[in-house]
Amino acid sequence: MLMAVPRFERFFRLAAGLDVDKDDLKRFSDFVFDEIHDLLLIGRVAAKSNRRDVIELYDLPITKGLQERMHEFEKLDAQLELAPILASLAARPQMDVSIGDETEARLSTVAGGVGVALARSFRILEPRLKNPQTAHWERAFQLFDLLL
After folding, report:
1. Which structural domain, as residue segments, surrounds residue 102?
2. Strand partners, 55
3. Chain center to CA of 140
4. Residue 42 and residue 5: Cα distance in Å, rounded?
5. Which CATH number covers residue 86?
């Protein structure tokens, strides 16, 4: 993961003009894991309520805003090649359902979209912010917990 630090630093610079460091990568990794885990748990409920044992992409509660951030991530990823790294961060909780192939293939893009949204949320919470500190990360996480 250490090799990915410069790519994540560049990701935050391109997505929101922020300077992050290797310590922030752990926060980001935990955040992505937790958010994907939560999306999959909701997807599980949707699949089960439709009497399916497979979580399909349309089972995930992907909002219009997240979908737009996913498209932005795809453009950034063409330069950064973060998708394989994000795929390894995406949570795969033990469940009594499977994750569909398309869903599995798109989890890195979903994770990237969540990452873009996180980066942009720092600038909304504090427009002049350049280098997020612990308090900034905590406020952003609280915002996501409230909304997702």
Report:
1. 10-147
2. 99
3. 13
4. 31
5. 1.10.20.10
Q: pLDDT digit string (tens) for 85-105? A: 888 877 666 778 999 999 999
Q: What is the pLDDT of residues 39-65, one digit of tens each?
A: 999 999 999 999 999 999 999 999 999
Token pair of 83 as six digits: 């998708």
The model's pLDDT over 117-145, given as tens digits with 9 standing for 90+, comes to: 999 999 999 999 999 999 999 999 999 99
68 in any annotated domain:
yes
Ordered alpha helix ranges (H), the chain: 5-16, 22-49, 64-80, 83-89, 101-125, 134-147
Closest by CA to 118, choosing from 40, 65, 42, is 65
List the structure tokens of 24: 């922030």
Q: How many domains does the chain have?
A: 1
Per the domain annotation, does 38 fall within a domain? yes
Query: Mean pLDDT in the chain?
Result: 92
